[in-house]
Amino acid sequence: MRAPYRQARCAAVLVASVLLGTAVPCATACNGTSPQTRTKPQDMSSSNEIQEWVKLRDLSADQLQQKLGLAKETQAPDRSYSKLNPVMKWHDPQRHPAHFIFQDGKLVLIYVDEQSAMSKLNVETLRRDFGTPDAQLRSRAGKRPLLNVHAGQGVAFAADNERVYYVEVFHPMSLADYQARIYVEPPPYRK
Fold it and tell me: How far apart are CA 134 and CA 136, in angstroms?
């Protein structure tokens, strides 16, 4: 008699989930077997992964080194990134997939393009979680991927319909500021 009760309870949770427009976890109600309420592991990590990078954007170089164990030898001074020039880039792939971009001693941008990190991101989930971008700009990742800029949230990601190519995390700003301070439009792509 427990199985019919469990199915009825799961159905009730699913109906409530649909009416509320959310995916209510009902692992106890339906023993984790309902595909309507399960999220793919990849989907769960997409926004969470970026949110973990967002948490790093307010750290100083010393705090970043202490938190992630980055090797000081992996710092590269007198570099540039898009319109940010000069910057110090800090990339220690043994410790973290990101390139940390510092200007005047402050972390101004986190850039991630490592394939293992990008493979954890799901384009649909990012679009759903971040909402409509402030702008979709041409991307240096190629002709088809667009740079989805969420300047007010401090996140931009280059993606086509199937994969994410790179992510930028920065301090929230207006779209005009992002375009003036960071974005460089790539040259036209030719066949």
Answer: 7
Query: Does residue 186 lie within any of the structural domains?
Result: no
pLDDT one-digit tens code per residue, 77-120: 999 999 999 999 999 999 999 999 999 999 999 999 999 999 99
* pTM tops 0.85, yes or no: no
Q: What are phi and psi of 108, to 5 degrees?
A: -110, -20
The count of structural domains within the chain is 2
CA distances from 96 to 86, 173, 188 (A): 23, 25, 32
163 backbone dihedrals φ, ψ, rounded to 5°: -150, 160
The 10s digit of each residue's pLDDT in 145-173 is 999 999 999 999 999 999 999 999 999 99
> Are 77 and 116 members of one domain?
yes
Residues 151, 174 contacting (CB under 8 angstroms): yes
Phi, psi of 19 (to 5 degrees): -65, -35
Residue-number span of the structural domain to which 93 is assigned: 41-181
Give phi and psi for 47, each to the nearest 5: -70, -35
CA–CA separation, 150 and 11 (whole Å): 37
Count CB atoms within 10 A of the CB of residue 122.
23
Tokens of 163: 């994969």
* Residue type at 115 in one-letter notation: Q
Place of tokens 């319109």: 83
